[in-house]
């Protein structure tokens, strides 16, 4: 995948609301298999689409891309041995040692592409319209939907849903909202009204663990407020929860499993090569040369790894 293929894949991931990172080679030192301008997409699950370099660079770029996505900050990497660069590394650049047999080096810029927050507001009150306007001012995707028109398909697991139907079929709307399993679900109304709605849904067989995730009333507790201030309180709660990481997707991908090559020390994805089993432990290798060296004297390398 390269050129337009990379751009098309980025567009598709963005449309699905999935986080990913874009890695671009900005410099190379021969003999590296990559070229300046080479690009790759790294998904949150650790899949790499495109070309960024060979077996030495790929696992390092995937690992660093996942860190970039986690903290939301771009990073400029210099991949090679520290001796290749000496004291000439600019401030702000991260040097990642790799033991590549070709003795090549790469400079890779990795930038996060995080999904725009998706807020679904169900209702047609002045408060609902104010909330949609405020969310839009933050650059969020805000959908304002009338209660009768709302369906479970209007929101995914990463979305935030605020039910503001205010007595107009609250129960039916909230039941559909619960079925969407969103990252956040709040009901605008008093605690007493919320208890009545949730009790009705429990009697209808909606699982209690799903009902327990409904926040009633939605928003921070600011006491008696106007409808504009209620909108501010709800948005403030959503911003607070997002900043704390409490609204992570319900189906986050499993962490990528890695191991250190016992011969050269390079990071290797455990699913990318066949391991060598020695004294009950599986060892993974970046290349055939490291595997051969280990097989010729496994005790020396196994002991070295134990000491580390």
Largest sheet: 6 strands, mixed
Mean model confidence by pLDDT: 85
Strand content: 15-25%
| CATH architecture grouping of the largest domain | 3-Layer(aba) Sandwich
Number of domains: 3
Q: Which structural category fits the helices and strands?
A: alpha/beta
CATH superfamily annotation of the largest domain? NAD(P)-binding Rossmann-like Domain
What's the arrangement of strands in the largest beta sheet? Answer: 3-2-1-6-4-5
What is the H-and-E element order? HEEEHEHEEEHEEHEHHEHEEEEHH
- CATH first level of the largest domain: Alpha Beta
**CA(first)-CA(last) distance:** 38 Å
Which term fits the overall shape?
elongated
Low-confidence spans: pLDDT under 50, at least 5 residues?
A: 249-254
Number of helices: 10
Would you give the CATH topology of the largest domain?
Rossmann fold
**Count of strand segments:** 15
Q: Helical content, roughly?
A: 25-40%
Radius of gyration (Å): 25 Å
Element layout with pairings:
Layout: H1 4-15, E1 20-29, E2 39-43, E3 48-50, H2 58-71, E4 75-80, H3 82-85, E5 93-97, E6 105-113, E7 118-122, H4 126-137, E8 141-145, E9 160-163, H5 170-179, E10 184-187, H6 191-203, H7 208-211, E11 214-215, H8 227-244, E12 258-260, E13 267-269, E14 276-278, E15 281-283, H9 288-296, H10 298-307
Parallel strand pairs: 4-5, 7-8, 7-9, 9-10, 10-11
Antiparallel strand pairs: 1-2, 1-6, 2-3, 4-6, 12-13, 14-15
